[in-house]
Amino acid sequence: MSQLEKIYGVHAVQALLKHHPKRVKQIWLSEGRSEPRLQTLLALAAENRVQVGQAERREMDAWVEGVHQGVVAEVSPSQVWGELMLEELLERTETPPLILVLDGVTDPHNLGACLRTADAAGATAVLVPKDKSATLTPVVRKVACGAAEVIPLVAVTNLARTLEKLQQRGLWVVGTAGEAEQEIYQQDLTGPLVMIMGAEGKGMRRLTREHCDFLVKLPMGGSVSSLNVSVATGVCLFEAVRQRQAKR
Protein backbone atom coordinates (compact mmCIF):
# COMPACT_ATOMS: atom_id res chain seq x y z
CA MET A 1 0.00 0.00 0.00
CA SER A 2 2.90 2.39 0.63
CA GLN A 3 3.54 2.70 -3.12
CA LEU A 4 -0.06 3.70 -3.86
CA GLU A 5 -1.42 7.23 -3.98
CA LYS A 6 -4.76 8.31 -2.58
CA ILE A 7 -6.96 10.27 -5.00
CA TYR A 8 -10.15 11.79 -3.63
CA GLY A 9 -13.34 13.49 -4.76
CA VAL A 10 -16.18 12.15 -6.91
CA HIS A 11 -15.10 13.72 -10.22
CA ALA A 12 -11.40 12.89 -9.87
CA VAL A 13 -12.02 9.22 -9.00
CA GLN A 14 -14.70 8.84 -11.68
CA ALA A 15 -12.41 10.31 -14.34
CA LEU A 16 -9.62 7.95 -13.34
CA LEU A 17 -11.98 4.97 -13.62
CA LYS A 18 -13.09 6.15 -17.05
CA HIS A 19 -9.70 6.93 -18.58
CA HIS A 20 -7.17 4.85 -16.62
CA PRO A 21 -9.10 2.09 -14.80
CA LYS A 22 -6.08 -0.20 -14.42
CA ARG A 23 -4.50 2.34 -12.08
CA VAL A 24 -7.38 2.08 -9.58
CA LYS A 25 -6.76 -0.66 -7.02
CA GLN A 26 -9.42 0.05 -4.38
CA ILE A 27 -12.21 2.55 -3.76
CA TRP A 28 -13.48 3.56 -0.35
CA LEU A 29 -16.83 5.24 0.32
CA SER A 30 -17.84 6.77 3.62
CA GLU A 31 -20.37 4.64 5.49
CA GLY A 32 -23.95 5.25 4.45
CA ARG A 33 -23.08 7.15 1.26
CA SER A 34 -25.32 5.98 -1.60
CA GLU A 35 -26.81 9.01 -3.38
CA PRO A 36 -27.62 8.95 -7.12
CA ARG A 37 -24.50 10.91 -8.17
CA LEU A 38 -22.39 7.89 -7.20
CA GLN A 39 -24.17 5.49 -9.57
CA THR A 40 -21.91 6.25 -12.55
CA LEU A 41 -18.82 5.82 -10.39
CA LEU A 42 -20.08 2.52 -8.96
CA ALA A 43 -21.02 1.26 -12.43
CA LEU A 44 -17.52 2.04 -13.73
CA ALA A 45 -15.99 0.30 -10.71
CA ALA A 46 -18.10 -2.81 -11.32
CA GLU A 47 -17.32 -2.78 -15.04
CA ASN A 48 -13.58 -2.68 -14.32
CA ARG A 49 -13.79 -5.09 -11.37
CA VAL A 50 -12.49 -2.57 -8.87
CA GLN A 51 -13.34 -3.44 -5.28
CA VAL A 52 -15.44 -0.90 -3.37
CA GLY A 53 -15.31 -0.84 0.43
CA GLN A 54 -16.67 1.35 3.20
CA ALA A 55 -14.84 3.30 5.88
CA GLU A 56 -15.70 5.74 8.62
CA ARG A 57 -15.64 9.36 7.51
CA ARG A 58 -13.26 10.41 10.29
CA GLU A 59 -10.87 7.65 9.22
CA MET A 60 -11.01 8.98 5.65
CA ASP A 61 -10.42 12.51 6.95
CA ALA A 62 -7.07 11.28 8.27
CA TRP A 63 -6.10 9.79 4.90
CA VAL A 64 -6.19 12.97 2.84
CA GLU A 65 -5.87 16.73 3.26
CA GLY A 66 -8.90 18.25 1.63
CA VAL A 67 -12.62 17.73 1.03
CA HIS A 68 -12.87 14.12 -0.12
CA GLN A 69 -16.68 14.08 -0.53
CA GLY A 70 -16.75 10.62 1.03
CA VAL A 71 -14.83 9.07 -1.89
CA VAL A 72 -11.17 7.99 -1.75
CA ALA A 73 -9.34 5.71 -4.20
CA GLU A 74 -6.01 3.97 -3.82
CA VAL A 75 -4.23 4.15 -7.18
CA SER A 76 -0.87 3.47 -8.78
CA PRO A 77 1.46 6.50 -8.91
CA SER A 78 0.68 9.57 -11.03
CA GLN A 79 1.89 9.85 -14.60
CA VAL A 80 3.75 13.00 -15.62
CA TRP A 81 4.88 12.77 -19.23
CA GLY A 82 8.36 13.43 -20.53
CA GLU A 83 9.50 15.41 -23.57
CA LEU A 84 9.22 12.44 -25.95
CA MET A 85 5.49 12.36 -25.26
CA LEU A 86 5.26 15.95 -26.48
CA GLU A 87 6.78 14.97 -29.83
CA GLU A 88 4.25 12.16 -30.15
CA LEU A 89 1.36 14.48 -29.30
CA LEU A 90 2.41 16.99 -31.95
CA GLU A 91 2.70 14.24 -34.56
CA ARG A 92 -0.86 13.09 -33.80
CA THR A 93 -2.45 16.54 -33.73
CA GLU A 94 -4.53 17.22 -36.84
CA THR A 95 -5.50 20.81 -35.96
CA PRO A 96 -3.08 23.64 -35.11
CA PRO A 97 -1.65 22.71 -31.69
CA LEU A 98 -2.42 24.82 -28.64
CA ILE A 99 0.10 24.27 -25.85
CA LEU A 100 -0.13 25.92 -22.43
CA VAL A 101 3.15 26.57 -20.58
CA LEU A 102 3.10 27.37 -16.87
CA ASP A 103 6.43 28.95 -15.95
CA GLY A 104 7.00 28.70 -12.21
CA VAL A 105 3.43 28.05 -11.05
CA THR A 106 3.96 26.30 -7.71
CA ASP A 107 0.49 26.42 -6.13
CA PRO A 108 -1.27 23.05 -6.65
CA HIS A 109 -4.69 24.73 -6.66
CA ASN A 110 -3.61 26.96 -9.54
CA LEU A 111 -2.15 24.02 -11.45
CA GLY A 112 -5.37 22.04 -10.99
CA ALA A 113 -7.49 24.96 -12.16
CA CYS A 114 -5.22 25.53 -15.19
CA LEU A 115 -5.43 21.84 -16.16
CA ARG A 116 -9.22 22.04 -15.99
CA THR A 117 -9.27 25.17 -18.15
CA ALA A 118 -6.76 23.77 -20.65
CA ASP A 119 -8.84 20.63 -21.10
CA ALA A 120 -12.01 22.69 -21.57
CA ALA A 121 -10.26 24.81 -24.22
CA GLY A 122 -9.09 21.72 -26.11
CA ALA A 123 -5.40 22.34 -25.48
CA THR A 124 -2.93 19.77 -26.78
CA ALA A 125 -0.88 19.62 -23.58
CA VAL A 126 0.29 21.57 -20.53
CA LEU A 127 4.03 22.06 -20.08
CA VAL A 128 5.83 22.79 -16.82
CA PRO A 129 9.52 22.90 -15.90
CA LYS A 130 10.62 19.97 -13.73
CA ASP A 131 12.07 22.31 -11.12
CA LYS A 132 10.16 24.97 -9.17
CA SER A 133 6.76 23.90 -10.39
CA ALA A 134 3.74 22.14 -8.96
CA THR A 135 3.20 18.58 -10.15
CA LEU A 136 0.37 16.06 -10.01
CA THR A 137 -0.85 15.55 -6.45
CA PRO A 138 -4.22 14.53 -4.96
CA VAL A 139 -5.00 18.23 -4.43
CA VAL A 140 -4.27 19.01 -8.10
CA ARG A 141 -6.45 16.12 -9.24
CA LYS A 142 -9.33 17.20 -6.98
CA VAL A 143 -9.23 20.83 -8.20
CA ALA A 144 -8.92 19.70 -11.84
CA CYS A 145 -12.25 17.80 -11.56
CA GLY A 146 -11.07 14.96 -13.78
CA ALA A 147 -9.05 17.00 -16.30
CA ALA A 148 -5.76 15.77 -14.80
CA GLU A 149 -6.62 12.28 -16.05
CA VAL A 150 -7.25 13.50 -19.61
CA ILE A 151 -4.92 16.33 -20.65
CA PRO A 152 -1.21 15.43 -20.80
CA LEU A 153 1.01 17.22 -18.26
CA VAL A 154 4.56 17.30 -19.63
CA ALA A 155 7.52 18.16 -17.38
CA VAL A 156 10.61 19.38 -19.24
CA THR A 157 14.18 19.68 -17.97
CA ASN A 158 15.08 22.82 -19.92
CA LEU A 159 12.08 25.00 -20.78
CA ALA A 160 14.07 27.42 -22.98
CA ARG A 161 15.44 24.57 -25.09
CA THR A 162 11.97 23.04 -25.41
CA LEU A 163 10.58 26.37 -26.61
CA GLU A 164 13.32 26.54 -29.24
CA LYS A 165 12.38 23.06 -30.48
CA LEU A 166 8.72 24.03 -30.67
CA GLN A 167 9.60 27.15 -32.65
CA GLN A 168 11.63 25.03 -35.06
CA ARG A 169 8.48 22.93 -35.58
CA GLY A 170 6.60 26.06 -36.62
CA LEU A 171 4.85 26.97 -33.37
CA TRP A 172 4.62 30.63 -32.36
CA VAL A 173 5.43 31.41 -28.73
CA VAL A 174 3.23 34.03 -27.05
CA GLY A 175 4.09 35.17 -23.54
CA THR A 176 1.93 37.19 -21.16
CA ALA A 177 3.48 40.21 -19.45
CA GLY A 178 1.91 43.23 -17.80
CA GLU A 179 4.32 45.64 -19.50
CA ALA A 180 3.60 44.36 -23.03
CA GLU A 181 2.44 47.01 -25.47
CA GLN A 182 -0.06 44.80 -27.31
CA GLU A 183 -3.27 43.41 -25.82
CA ILE A 184 -4.07 39.74 -26.34
CA TYR A 185 -7.13 40.65 -28.41
CA GLN A 186 -4.84 42.23 -31.02
CA GLN A 187 -2.69 39.12 -31.38
CA ASP A 188 -3.37 36.42 -33.98
CA LEU A 189 -3.84 33.19 -32.02
CA THR A 190 -5.18 30.98 -34.80
CA GLY A 191 -1.97 29.23 -35.83
CA PRO A 192 0.21 26.61 -34.06
CA LEU A 193 0.60 28.22 -30.66
CA VAL A 194 2.43 28.08 -27.35
CA MET A 195 0.81 30.25 -24.67
CA ILE A 196 3.04 31.02 -21.68
CA MET A 197 1.67 32.08 -18.30
CA GLY A 198 4.13 33.20 -15.63
CA ALA A 199 3.95 32.80 -11.89
CA GLU A 200 1.88 35.31 -9.96
CA GLY A 201 3.93 38.30 -8.92
CA LYS A 202 7.16 37.27 -10.61
CA GLY A 203 5.74 36.57 -14.06
CA MET A 204 7.84 34.70 -16.62
CA ARG A 205 11.51 34.12 -15.99
CA ARG A 206 13.95 36.21 -18.03
CA LEU A 207 15.15 33.33 -20.22
CA THR A 208 11.59 32.26 -20.93
CA ARG A 209 10.66 35.81 -21.91
CA GLU A 210 13.62 36.00 -24.31
CA HIS A 211 12.26 32.99 -26.23
CA CYS A 212 8.85 34.57 -26.86
CA ASP A 213 7.93 35.65 -30.39
CA PHE A 214 5.29 38.01 -29.02
CA LEU A 215 4.38 39.51 -25.65
CA VAL A 216 0.76 40.34 -24.85
CA LYS A 217 -1.17 41.68 -21.88
CA LEU A 218 -4.71 41.67 -20.57
CA PRO A 219 -6.35 45.10 -20.30
CA MET A 220 -6.81 45.91 -16.60
CA GLY A 221 -9.48 48.52 -15.98
CA GLY A 222 -9.76 48.38 -12.20
CA SER A 223 -7.52 48.95 -9.21
CA VAL A 224 -5.82 45.53 -9.23
CA SER A 225 -2.69 45.13 -11.35
CA SER A 226 -3.06 41.46 -12.28
CA LEU A 227 -5.36 38.43 -12.23
CA ASN A 228 -4.93 35.07 -10.57
CA VAL A 229 -2.91 32.91 -12.98
CA SER A 230 -5.71 30.37 -13.45
CA VAL A 231 -8.20 33.14 -14.29
CA ALA A 232 -5.76 34.79 -16.71
CA THR A 233 -5.14 31.38 -18.30
CA GLY A 234 -8.86 30.98 -18.93
CA VAL A 235 -9.12 34.41 -20.57
CA CYS A 236 -6.11 33.78 -22.83
CA LEU A 237 -6.94 30.23 -23.88
CA PHE A 238 -10.55 31.01 -24.68
CA GLU A 239 -9.55 34.06 -26.71
CA ALA A 240 -7.54 31.59 -28.81
CA VAL A 241 -10.60 29.33 -28.99
CA ARG A 242 -12.79 32.27 -30.06
CA GLN A 243 -10.39 33.30 -32.82
CA ARG A 244 -10.02 29.75 -34.10
CA GLN A 245 -13.76 29.18 -34.25
CA ALA A 246 -14.26 32.50 -36.04
CA LYS A 247 -11.63 31.55 -38.61
CA ARG A 248 -13.31 28.23 -39.32
From TrEMBL:
Q: Which domain of life is it from?
A: Bacteria
Alphabetically list the UniProt keywords.
Cytoplasm, Methyltransferase, rRNA processing, S-adenosyl-L-methionine, Transferase
Q: Which reaction does it catalyse?
A: guanosine(2251) in 23S rRNA + S-adenosyl-L-methionine = 2'-O-methylguanosine(2251) in 23S rRNA + S-adenosyl-L-homocysteine + H(+)
Where does it live in the cell?
A: Cytoplasm
Query: Where do the annotations place S-adenosyl-L-methionine binding?
Result: G198, L218, L227
Q: Which HAMAP family match?
A: 23SrRNA_methyltr_B
Q: What is this protein called?
A: 23S rRNA (guanosine-2'-O-)-methyltransferase RlmB
- Origin organism is Pseudomonas putida
Its ancestry begins with:
Bacteria, Pseudomonadati, Pseudomonadota, Gammaproteobacteria, Pseudomonadales
